[in-house]
From TrEMBL:
<dbReference type="GO" id="GO:0005524">
    <property type="term" value="F:ATP binding"/>
</dbReference>
<dbReference type="InterPro" id="IPR051272">
    <property type="entry name" value="RIO-type_Ser/Thr_kinase"/>
</dbReference>
<dbReference type="GO" id="GO:0046872">
    <property type="term" value="F:metal ion binding"/>
</dbReference>
<feature type="domain" description="RIO kinase">
    <location>
        <begin position="53"/>
        <end position="285"/>
    </location>
</feature>
<keyword id="KW-0547">Nucleotide-binding</keyword>
<comment type="similarity">
    <text>Belongs to the protein kinase superfamily. RIO-type Ser/Thr kinase family.</text>
</comment>
<dbReference type="GO" id="GO:0004674">
    <property type="term" value="F:protein serine/threonine kinase activity"/>
</dbReference>
<keyword id="KW-0723">Serine/threonine-protein kinase</keyword>
<dbReference type="Pfam" id="PF01163">
    <property type="entry name" value="RIO1"/>
</dbReference>
<protein>
    <recommendedName>
        <fullName>non-specific serine/threonine protein kinase</fullName>
        <ecNumber>2.7.11.1</ecNumber>
    </recommendedName>
</protein>
<keyword id="KW-0808">Transferase</keyword>
<keyword id="KW-0460">Magnesium</keyword>
<keyword id="KW-0418">Kinase</keyword>
<dbReference type="InterPro" id="IPR018934">
    <property type="entry name" value="RIO_dom"/>
</dbReference>
<keyword id="KW-0067">ATP-binding</keyword>
<keyword id="KW-0479">Metal-binding</keyword>
<dbReference type="InterPro" id="IPR011009">
    <property type="entry name" value="Kinase-like_dom_sf"/>
</dbReference>
Length: 288
């Protein structure tokens, strides 16, 4: 049986609802890179509700937050234009490893001992500190921090949630406190003067976090009051690119003792009776 098809006019009540955006964005702004990175380059599940995944979102640089030896940290807003709803607007930290002209990876060999590299060409370039070697190093350290953030987050450690990695840029949670002037970056532990009760709580949190890391076979490697944030009553550990394998790195124990010394020195100066060797011994009980 044949059937005739006739062309009908569109129902006038059927309307396309869309908004056109200009591709010519100003300096300091780009379209969200969330969908342009591979799934493995996005943060672990379950993701926090505040993570913006919309393809319509824009990334806007808000200014520099911190300058470091190997990378600079910026504040970056990812938002759907005109929306402030949860999951459609958020401010994050964008950590960007520097260009080869400015990078200075501090004591890189001692930190990376025990890590494997798949390509011998890359390994040779790193050892020669050639231009390509420095490019490889930027990627290696970015990936190292990304992997460390994911690993620590999945262990339940107090670290910023890792949102995504794209080349040598890592987007992560912005750790904040509420102040008289509104939302601000949480201060470094070194900048705080906690009362005795909070000081003791901070030390307990730190010891528990270090114990969890040691139990998983890793050491921060550069832990100090300058890369621990005091977000109200909780501590958050940051700056993890140099994370060390406790057993695979021959300097693993030395790095752990140095971390203990750095932290105990600060806590003693604030009036808490702690000892780095006691802390080291306590942590080693979790290692084996």
């Amino acid at each position: 049986m044949s059937q005739d098809f006739t062309q009908h006019e569109l129902d006038p009540s059927f309307v396309f609802d869309f908004e056109a955006y200009d591709d010519d964005l100003p300096d300091g702004q780009r379209w969200s890179t969330w969908l342009s990175v591979e799934p493995l380059c996005r943060g672990p599940q379950p993701r926090p509700d505040w993570v913006v995944t919309s393809q319509a979102a824009l990334d806007t640089d808000l200014g520099i937050l911190k300058t470091g030896k190997e990378a600079d940290a910026f504040l970056l807003e990812r938002a759907v234009p005109g929306s402030e709803a949860l999951g459609e607007s958020v401010v994050m930290v964008a950590k960007r490893y520097r260009s080869t002209d400015h990078r200075n990876f501090h004591r890189a060999a001692s930190y990376t001992e025990g890590r494997s590299m798949k390509r011998s060409r890359d390994e040779r370039a790193l050892k020669r500190n050639s231009t390509w070697g420095r490019i490889v190093a930027a990627g290696e350290w970015a990936i190292s921090e990304w992997d460390a953030l994911k690993r620590c987050h999945e262990l339940g450690l107090p670290v910023p949630y890792p949102v995504q990695i794209d080349g040598t840029e890592i987007l992560m949670e912005w750790i904040t406190v509420e102040g008289e002037d509104g939302t601000q970056t949480a201060p470094r532990l070194a900048q705080t003067r906690p009362d005795p009760v909070l000081l003791a709580s901070y030390f307990d949190q730190l010891r528990d976090a270090m114990a969890t890391m040691v139990q998983d076979g890793i050491v921060h490697g550069d832990l100090s009051p300058y890369n621990v944030l005091a977000a109200g009553e909780r501590l958050v550990i940051i700056d993890l690119p140099q994370i060390v394998d406790l057993v695979g790195n021959t300097n693993g124990m030395d790095f752990l003792l140095r971390d203990c010394t750095n932290m105990c020195t600060w806590f003693r100066a604030r009036g808490l009776d702690v000892d780095e060797h006691d802390l080291f011994g306590d942590l080693m009980a979790h290692a084996f």
